[in-house]
Write a structure and sequence with these properties.
This protein is of the alpha/beta class. The chain has 12 helices and 19 strands. Helix 2 crosses helix 3 (about 115-125) and helix 5 (about 155-165) packs parallel to helix 6 (about 185-195).
Amino acid sequence: MTDSYHIVKHCRICGDNDFSTILDLGKTPLANSFLSTHNEKELFVSLTLRICNSCALVQLKEVVNPEIMFKEYPYRTSSSQTLPQHFKNMAREIVSMCHYSGISSPRVYDIGSNDGTLLKALVDEGAHSIGIEPAANLRRIAKARGMVSVPGYFNRTIANELVNNFGFGKAVIANNVLGHVDDLNDFVSGVYDLLEPGGIFICEVHYLGDLIQNVEYDTIYHEHLSYFSISPLLKLLHNNGFCIIDVKRFDIHGGILRVTAGKSNAPDVKLPIITNEENWGLYDVEYLEVFNQRVQYQITLLQDLLYDIKNKDKRIVGYGAPAKGNTLLNVCKIGSSVLDYITDTTLEKQGKFTPGTHIPVNSPSIYKTDKPDYALLLAWNFLPEIIKNETNFRGKFIVPIPSPKILL
């Protein structure tokens, strides 16, 4: 145990201590810890993925202090076009569900509300939205947009404070938040306390099924403590008083699940996805251990492709500086000798250097004067949007996931 991180001794859903290791990516820096200079001290922590042999939750072995990762956060929800549209559709659907229950202006809480993109979409649909966000820089952006954004890491104590200050919610949303939470039962029980009777909880999580099938090893980083398949996620919700209303899968972020749960003792909807996961082997340790071999193979393929291009005296840059990209760069040992620079639209990242690999991050405006031969798509999960926006790019794109390829 240190002030920076600690080793997990018990599963954060069922409390068991029987784990099997399925992947070890070695020690890497924190994926969003961009540097102002090359000389800054960096924290390296092991990226070891384990499965609980009792409830099948896949989770990291080490947990980094959230204050180190989330006090100031460089990722903005509004930095792409794809995610805001996804949230607009989500807001419309949620408010429609609330209207169906006879509520004209529902109170909706958004946990991990980031820069207020979803909060604004909810307001536009007629909801009264309230955000909870630990990152001070993101709260400032949300408030500048006229949104209510409350500081803190959500838990049961904060839930009771929100009820006292604002009232119960008809809906609570947590998009790509559960994976960041260490004490999951406290979090979900807090959601239960925050909801009015008959209220709904909507959470989106990165889907383990897509991660395994598409060898999305770059999605593994220290902010993502848990990697959900449906069975352990349902166990978590059931343990804290929720029934399952709906489960949907979306392609965004490389594959996510959206689970809608109700504060009710009604029976669950039938979920064929559980049978599919069992048949697939997603709870089978031996099946998951093969993932390690597939990851190592894909890493070698990418390294060979990039070094072959460099040996032909061609220039390569990186496109996008997401957290997942920094896992890929560090695990594949891709540094400034391979990539001249990386471009990203996020202002907080521009002018800085990537953690561990120390590659400079520039504005995409550099493409107006510079003409690199290739661009490695580190933000490959937004591939359609990138292709649409970069019609003037005259080089070739390299897509690293699920298997490295050059788009011709």
